[in-house]
Amino acid sequence: MLKRAIILLVLPFFFLGCNQKPDKVTHKHTNALINETSPYLLQHAHNPVNWEAWSPEVLERAQKEDKPLLISIGYAACHWCHVMEKECFEDEEVAQMMNENFINIKIDREERPDVDQIYMDAIQMMSGNGGWPLNIVALPDGRPFWGATYVPKGNWIKSLQQLTELYKNDRSRVTQYAADLANGIHAINLVENATDSDFYNLDQLDAAVTNWSQYFDSFLGGYKRAPKFMMPNNWDFLLHYATANNKPELLEQVNTTLQRMAYGGIYDHVGGGFSRYAVDTTWHVPHFEKMLYDNGQLTSLYAKAYAVTKNEMYKEVVDETIGFVQEELWDENGGFYSSLDADSLNDEGELEEGAYYVWTKEELQQLLGEDYSVFEAYFNINSYGLWEEGNYVLIKDKSDAEIAEKFNISVSELKTKMDNALGILKKERAKRAKPRLDDKILTSWNGLMLKGLVDAHRYLGNDKYLDMALKNAKFIETEMIKDDHSLFRNHKEGKSSINAFLEDYASVIEAYLALYEVTFDEKWLNHSKKLLDYTKVHFMDSESGMFFFTSDEDHSLIRRSIETNDNVISASNSIMAKNLLKFHKLYPDEDYGDIAKQMVMNVQKDFDTSAQGFANWLHVVLYENQNFYEVAIVGENYKELGKQVARNYLPNSILVGSKEEGKLELLENRYVPGATLAYVCIEGTCKLPVTTAEEVLQQIKSFK
């Protein structure tokens, strides 16, 4: 077997962040990546390796030269990517071997998730593990036959030597293995059109959630495992399910999780915002990179949870997270940058993970003076809060009331003391070397942040968040949407170069639709519908009824993927299913609803045993099995009445509104001069109009 002839050196480093050296004034080497805009690719532009970006032309040249591809995939906030860069890709000996025997391709996985997901499937099939850096050796046509994550220099050289000899001397075996692997890569991504199934019902959903709940950590929140990822789509669905079905024990689990995450070191108590994940079970020590997509989704989640519970801590988390995003990831053009690195320079001038965020006890005592003792108890400057080598990561484990009682002060006085202390720390932290910024702008992640801002405005009532949302929405409109209603994936310094993927369309469609619901500006609804219709033409698979990840107008890869599993970000197909179901309510004569239902039926066989991996899909199960309300508001004060209704958590609903007659069917023949009326409807069948938000809510509760 070829597997035995190849040394597979795969280490399971999942979602690990990266470091890089500051650019020098002069460079001994410069490769083709110097022409790219991705910060990650530019970080490798002065390696002695002859890196090139992924393109059809490079693959064509590899086939002409009959050289295997060496494909290395990572991202700008990836720690082990740059450990390997330093050890291997900056090394002259290694570079010479790579340049002589391979066509070397560097890929930013955040720019090209289409390529990344195929090769991630490949390495998991070969080894059972995956992660970044993801290093693949493939035939000139792109079919892989070897893979590894981080590999130290000595093992890297040995592996490349063996692969070179194998490719030259035993080509038939290499080709056969690559062919078999390619077949497997295709097979694991097939989705069948389940035409003989009944739609998933509430009894089945109850059983699936019961099975799912056995994995909950009821004390610390999240799941009983480490590392702990925040998985906002899981808790977002469970919030919906618990409130719609009167499940107080599940709502308690959601609240425990949200509280513990906000208490933990994974939340930046000094500057706001969340890190990538916690390496432990207590949410204490984060992997310190801070990603736009996490913070966008968590902004939505905490805003919705605030609407349900009116817990002031949730409101503070939303405010502080948006404050972080605005301060660190907000471009003056209205777009949002991608991430902050995990690593930064320490006092010795060396790159160190978390150096920007952690504190020594001595520093805190000196900075906080007489308030140190309260701060020490509040943020556990003790064995519980200790990370390593005398460094502390701030973590709470007691309520404000408990700490205030211990020090015989009021909660408001405690809050004032802690706000002042955190302000001092923020000012001091600003003197440190900051983590490097990945300043590329990605459409899908901007869609997630736009949805977060809309939800924050909707449920917290802060108009500043609507202003930010509108500026971001206009940026997407002017810079990312093309004349034919297709999208760009990326943007940096005025340039966009990559066609968008399904996740870009799905997240922007969802965000624009949500923006319409809080503004009633039909421009955003029209943009959303045009993008949706574009995906039906260019992404839909007529055989399975699902949507491909890539457009039919893009260069084909070894597989045209269909993404179905909800991960840290919800699957593009699950977001599309939700979008389609909601558009069905607005445009019932089109086929949106039929497509959405068929999509769910195609994947529902996995709900029983893997509900947590399909959490975003399960919203559609609730939409279809329970009442879904269309609320139409017409009249002079339609915006104000709409705002009052929207502040309530109503996940099974969609809001439409206009001053007089509207173009939507739901808004036709509703206008009465001198009145502002609200109509609560199901599939166009409406109750008698009412004039207040309270009456709307009462009708929703009593709708038969």
TrEMBL record:
PROSITE patterns linked: PROKAR_LIPOPROTEIN (PS51257)
Pfam families given in the database record: Glyco_hydro_76, Thioredox_DsbH
Spermatogenesis-associated protein 20-like TRX domain sequence ranges: 30-183
Name of this protein: Thioredoxin domain-containing protein
Species assigned in the record: Flagellimonas marina
Phylogenetic classification of the source organism: Bacteria, Pseudomonadati, Bacteroidota, Flavobacteriia, Flavobacteriales
